[in-house]
Structure formats: structure tokens, C-alpha cells
Write a structure and sequence with these properties.
Structural class: alpha+beta
Shape: elongated
Strand content: 25-35%
Order of helices and strands: HEEEEEEEEEEEEEEEEEEH
Largest sheet: 5 strands, antiparallel
Radius of gyration: 25 Å
Strand order of the largest sheet: 9-5-6-15-14
Helix content: 25-40%
Number of domains: 2
Number of strands: 18
Length: about 240
């Protein structure tokens, strides 16, 4: 196969991958705490003995955009949002996970649960539990949770020990090799608000159109190369 075809195919594969990422961003416009992703393209240059070098595009890495999303007031005392850096820590069947989605509801035991049934963990990694008969619930900026005027727990902010190990899972959940409490420069917790997805719809749609046009241009090149090769084979076969 001609080198131009190899190069075009690797580019097409990367563009298809980027199209999937952009579509996933758009599909999660209304997902609380969602973080948009981008694709990182890299160039791989290979040279055989005595042959010209061959450059190929590689687009397997993803970049997670951790910029702040818009705040939406809900008035629900168990809705929490993070202003600044940091994540909530929740307990899932697969282990502890990070999230910016702060919609929680107390279960029958008073434990704060996410809509998916994941328990919210405090600054020490233990489940946050409310008294069953609590009425006046307040959450301070530092995460101190109070009920009827008395402190109950302190909701901690966490981050991955190695930022490069942060990996997206389902929805607004993130996994990391290790989590640790966020430092003094971490964000603050706002009660009665939720953080919206940090996806800009117009920018994502514009990027989707751009990627689609680039993919169509690459496909046109492959079609022309295929026709050229066919013509050469037919000519030499006469």
C-alpha cells in the first residue's frame, strides 16, 4: 500500500476518534458536573533503512478540561457545588471515585447518596451520615456539615495524587491511581447549588463540523488514490 494511503488512514482514524469525543461532550450538555474532553494528536515518524521517513498521526490520548462550570441555584440543602479546584469523593462498587456532581439525597440511614446510589465520603474517607431527625441542615464553605446547629461531619475535597492518572468513567465519575485530600488552595463548597457541565455548545458543534469536513476531505483523498491505483493496475495488465 502507498505511504500516502497509510498516512491518510491514520489521520482518518484519529478524526473518527475525535468525532466520538465531541459527540460525547454534546450528549452530556445537561449532565451535572460533567467535564468536557478533547483529543490530543501526536506525530509518529518512522524511517526504514534507506527509505524516506513516514509520518503518521496518532490520536489515542484524551485531555480532560477541568475548567469551572456555571453555577445553578436549586435551593436544595443537599445540593452541593465546588467553586474552584477539587472533587467530591464517593464510594462505588468499583472503589472510590472522584466527581464534581454534587446532587445528594439522604437514604433511610441518613447517608448522603448520589442518584446512582454512591455514598458521599467525608474528609477522612468515611461515609457522610445525617441524624435521622435532622431538620436545619447547613454546609459551610469549608465543607463542615451541621444539623440543627451542631456539626455532624466535614465534607472533604479531594484530587488525584498524580493528575495524569485521572481517567473518566461513566457520567461525571473519575478514577485515579490514588486520591489525596486537596490542599489549602482547594475550592470552596456552595450549598443549594449545582455545577453545570463545562461544555460550550456552540464551540462543540463548530468543532464537530470542522472534524466532519476534515474527515470528508481525507476520504476524498483515499478515493482518488484508490482510483489511481486501479488505473495503474489496469494499464499494466493490458
Amino acid at each position: 500500500m502507498d505511504n500516502a494511503v497509510y498516512t491518510a488512514l491514520t489521520r482518518q482514524s484519529g478524526l473518527m476518534h475525535e468525532m466520538q469525543v465531541v459527540a460525547h461532550n454534546i450528549a452530556n450538555l445537561s449532565t451535572t458536573g460533567f467535564r468536557r474532553e478533547g483529543v490530543v494528536f501526536a506525530e509518529h515518524v518512522h524511517r526504514l533503512d534507506g527509505a524516506p521517513s513516514l509520518s503518521m498521526a496518532h490520536a489515542s490520548a484524551r485531555h480532560i478540561d477541568l475548567s469551572q462550570g456555571d453555577m445553578q441555584a436549586t435551593g436544595n440543602p443537599f445540593d452541593l457545588a465546588i467553586l474552584g479546584e477539587g472533587f467530591f469523593l464517593v464510594e462505588t462498587p468499583q472503589g472510590e471515585r472522584l466527581t464534581r456532581a454534587g446532587h445528594f439525597t439522604p437514604n433511610e440511614a441518613g447517608e448522603l447518596m448520589s442518584p446512582a446510589g454512591h455514598r458521599l465520603l467525608d474528609a477522612g474517607g468515611a461515609p457522610v451520615q445525617m441524624p435521622p431527625d435532622a431538620r436545619d441542615v447547613a454546609v459551610a464553605a469549608d465543607g463542615t456539615l451541621s444539623a440543627d446547629g451542631g456539626p455532624v461531619a466535614r465534607i472533604g475535597l479531594w484530587h488525584p495524587a498524580d493528575p495524569l492518572s485521572l481517567r473518566r468513567e461513566a457520567g461525571a465519575l473519575f478514577a485515579a491511581d490514588a486520591m489525596e485530600p486537596a490542599g489549602e488552595d482547594a475550592g470552596t463548597i456552595l450549598q443549594g447549588r449545582l455545577e453545570a457541565a463545562n461544555v460550550a455548545p456552540v464551540a462543540e458543534i463548530a468543532r464537530m463540523i470542522e472534524v466532519q469536513r476534515a474527515y470528508e476531505a481525507g476520504q476524498a483523498l483515499l478515493d482518488r488514490e484508490d482510483e489511481r491505483i486501479r488505473n495503474v493496475i489496469q494499464t499494466l495488465g493490458r
